[in-house]
Amino acid sequence: MSDADTKGNGDAIDPRLKAVYKDVTELVGIDHIRDELIRKLCDGNERSKDQLRTMSIVGFGGLGKTTLAKAVYDKIKVQFDSVAFVSVSRNPDMTKIFKKILYELDKSKYATINEAARDNEQLIDELRMFLQDKRYLIVIDDIWDEKAWELIKCAFTDNCLGSRVMTTTRIGSISKVCCSSGDDIIYQMKPLPDDESERLFYKRIFPQGSKCPDELEEVSRKILKKCGGVPLAIITIASILASNGQDQHIKPKYHWDNILGSIGRGLAEGDSAKDMQRILSFSYYDLPSHLKTCLLYLSIFPEDFEIRRDRLIWMWIAEGFVQGGEQETGLFELGESYFNELANRNLIQPVHFDATGKAQACRVHDMVLDLLCSLSSEQNFATILDGTQQSKSISHSKSRRLSFQNSMSEPTTNLVDATSFQVLRVLDLEGCDLGRNGHDVDLRCTRCGVTRWHREPDVLRRADWKIGGCERARATGQAESALSLLEWEE
Questions:
Q1: 354 and 253 share a domain?
Q2: Keywords on this record (predicted)?
Q3: With bands split at pLDDT 50, 70 and 90, how would you rate the model's confidence at 391?
């Protein structure tokens, strides 16, 4: 592999892509839809304006439901006393959801809410008490389960102060459950029209002010037809075709023709999820091998998780995925270029840009995460335990990375016999509330290379730990100091 291949084309995140995330409403043509939804959400006679009103945005994955909801939220949140934007996702831990809503509503008052030992009923009571005298705006993003919504809505009191709730979902029946009163609104998300699809596509590929060359117009139209007006598909394919930040030359027509032929039939009506996966998988297989590995590593993070850039890079380094630099500083800079290249290809979504234009964190779209989890399972790259899987679904002899993504509401030893993991290299406990229920955690492995915790060491101390048989243990982040707390058994 050449030096150029190793470094990638990721010296910086492409400013054209940063514009996609910093000024989304302009690029994907939702400004007029946003304003229409704001009118529906906020207008009405005096009586109806004061009543609690719910709006649900529904549509299949990749259409931009979250983007639209965020655009509405950002535009009107100054009109409310308290606001929150919280993602639910599949297999939600409802206790964490309620705590996150409280924290979003008042970050100062609820700064330590995650450490509080409260059940759902107590948290609902706390929310109702907090909201009773406030005009509030709350967005509940990505609902998959009616029961989750039925529980969440118990916290919303109608105090006749003009409060508003928004939800997003892929499932039509859930949007109807969310909008059960006469003043509630369901908005069916639609694909972008041809002109806005073209605008988004060209904005990502060509430098500002440049036009599409005549010889590429026909193949562009054919590619866009296969993208079906879905913003995620459009940006993903455009990111493959875009020139890198150093080389502004437009890629030759044969490259465009190859992509057109490789994405199959595109997004056919009635099987959008499967067809979207095909488009995303093409983007994955277009990566050099070192970036494939770094991208697959993101499968160990929960859905809708905000991943800090520096932490992710150090984790890649600890795993040995970043190689080529002579010193640690060089390795980190190389890891930064990997991060930027994945962002430039729209496989991760950069967020929180600092004054120098560097993204401080990233997210992974849930459809991309679905693909990564599927590939990870096929390749025995990582095993995810999120409360829906039991030990019978785990290949103990092949699992190299084990990630717990539940609250450990059941004892860990009931979920998995960790002594049988013969080739385990990574144990990931991010997001697990290890100390809440006072469980003993008994994990023995033969080669535990990297262990990471999200919790502070005092929380780890509340759980009884036994890790034995490890030839070596390397830790990232807070786990470095936490290792001294563990009881080692030979």
A1: yes
A2: Plant defense, Repeat
A3: very low
Report which residue type is found at 292: K
* Residue 313 and residue 448 in one domain: no
How many structural domains is the chain composed of? 3
Enclosing H/E stretch for 136: strand 136-143
CA distance 140 to 178: 10
pLDDT at 242 over 70: yes
CB-CB neighbours of 407 under 10 Å: 17
List the structure tokens of 439. 């469980």
157: number of CA atoms within 13 Å, CB side? 14
Question: Which candidate, 13, 59, 53, places its Cα nearest to that of 33?
Answer: 59
DSSP secondary structure, 7-44, as one string: HTT-SS--HHHHHHHHSHHHHTT-HHHHHHHHHHHH-S
Q: Are residues 369 and 429 in the same domain?
A: no
Amino acid at 317: I
Strand partners, 166: 55, 139
Q: Model confidence over 453-484: pLDDT tens digits?
A: 444 444 444 444 444 444 444 444 444 434 43
324 and 248 together in one domain: yes
Q: Give 123-146 pLDDT, tens digit per residue.
A: 999 999 999 999 999 999 999 999
Helix axes 253-262, 214-227, angle to 10 degrees: 20
Which of 346, 378, 410 delimits the end of a domain?
A: 378
Span between the terminal Cα atoms of the chain, in Å: 42
- How many residues are there in the chain? 490
Specify which residues 87 forms β-bridges with. Answer: 141
Instruction: Provide the pLDDT for residue 472.
Output: 40
Task: Give the domain-ending residue among 323, 354, 378.
Answer: 378
Closest by Cα among 378, 398, 376 to 293: 376
Mean per-residue pLDDT of the chain = 77
Q: Which residues contact 45 (CB under 8 A, 6 or more apart)?
A: none
What integer pLDDT is reported at residue 230 of this predicted model? 86
Token pair listed for 354: 């600092």
Structural domain of residue 459, as residue ranges? 382-489
In the structure encoding, which two tokens stand for residue 285, read together? 């297989």
Sequence-separated (6 or more) residues with CB below 8 Å from residue 123: 95, 98, 99, 102, 155
Q: What mean pLDDT comes out for the span 204-226?
A: 86
The DSSP 8-state label assigned to residue 158 in this structure reads -
Distances (CA, A) of 198 to 192, 231, 267: 9, 10, 16
CA–CA dist 1, 8 (Å, integer): 11
| Amino acid identity, position 116 | A
User: What does the block give as tokens for 123?
Assistant: 């948290």
Examine the domain organization and report whether 372 and 386 are in the same domain.
Answer: no
Dihedral sign computed on CA atoms, order 106, 107, 113, 119: positive
What confidence score (pLDDT) does residue 328 get? 54
